[in-house]
Amino acid sequence: MSLDGKHALVTGSSRGIGRGIALKLGGKGVKVAIHYHKNEAAAKDTLAKLRKLGSDGIIIQADICRPEEVSRLFGRVKSEFGKLDVFVSNARPDVPEFYQGPMNITLDQWDTALNSQAKAFLVAVREVCRMMDDGGRIVAITYAPGGRTGSWQSWVGMGAAKSAMESLCRYFAVALAKRGITVNAISPGWIEDSVLNTLPDAVQEMVRTWHRGGWTPMGRLGTPADIGNAVALLCSEEAGWITGQVIAVDGGSSLMDAGLPLEIQRG
Ligand SMILES: NC(=O)c1ccc[n+]([C@@H]2O[C@H](COP(=O)([O-])OP(=O)(O)OC[C@H]3O[C@@H](n4cnc5c(N)ncnc54)[C@H](OP(=O)(O)O)[C@@H]3O)[C@@H](O)[C@H]2O)c1
């Protein structure tokens, strides 16, 4: 579909990857509902940047961990836009709210992770379908390694939550296939100008050094614009036959084999 004049909702678009997605879509003439949780100033900044690109949008606050707020969010989109062509599920609670290993994670932290991804996506996609024409696009932003591996112990809650969301993508993809609505997940590699920049400096540098050193074959971290580009590709008319997939957008990092020394793997 041509994106000019379409309407999108990007959750968690006040900052980070969500902002990159909103701006990429805005640059293609999409009107964007910018969603935030606590950081209204950042959401206003995204809107200002969107307007500089010649597009426009609205700002909506909601806690995606609460199903009734997810429904309210879509009610607002419906009353402002009338319909939705693109829905991007990107928001994720701040790390301290769920970051704990499997032996210690509290049930509240577990619920925060699962509610923010799996339950929010379940409720959201049902709401989306009521206001999306045939041929629309639904994209979930995941982190696939967290669901596949077990080594990053404190990621257990979010790993399980993202896995459940990826599974929902496949089920919704079949449920909505007859309407030509595609449902896919994008799994970014490590991205600059995102949650990464809130981690201690030493941790940030370890991550950068690791990827530049070879564990990302392209030799750099990603940017929010890289992920925005991938979302825009999935929203194009030409992507209409791609559905139910988890697509790694990571400069090749998911191609590396953790069982072998880097020296043997370098191209
Ligand atoms: N960063 C990476 O390297 C990376 C890699 C792979 C996957 N991802 C995925 O990409 C997505 C974005 O990551 P990011 O690093 O760009 O995020 P981020 O910079 O931490 O931003 C998080 C966004 O989610 C919103 N949010 C936080 N808690 C919320 C809640 N309870 N209800 C509703 N919204 C809430 C925030 O709103 P406020 O500004 O109002 O707080 C903000 O817009 C996430 O799903 C993440 O798992 C990230």
Structure description:
It is a single chain. A seven-stranded parallel sheet has the order 3-2-1-4-5-6-7, with helices on both faces. It is built from nine helices and seven strands; from the N terminus they run E-H-E-H-E-H-E-H-E-H-H-E-H-H-E-H. Strand 4, helix 4 and strand 5 (about 135-140) form a beta-alpha-beta unit. By secondary structure, the chain is α/β, with parallel strands linked by helices. The chain has one domain: Rossmann fold (3-Layer(aba) Sandwich), CATH 3.40.50. It starts with 6 loop residues before the first strand and ends with a helix. It is globular. It has helices at about 15-25, 40-50, 65-80, 105-130, 145-150, 155-175, 200-215, 225-235, 260-265, and strands spanning about 5-10, 30-35, 55-60, 85-90, 135-140, 180-190, 245-250. Helices cover about 45% and strands about 15% of the residues. Bound molecules: NADP nicotinamide-adenine-dinucleotide phosphate. The site of NADP nicotinamide-adenine-dinucleotide phosphate has 28 residues, from helix 1.
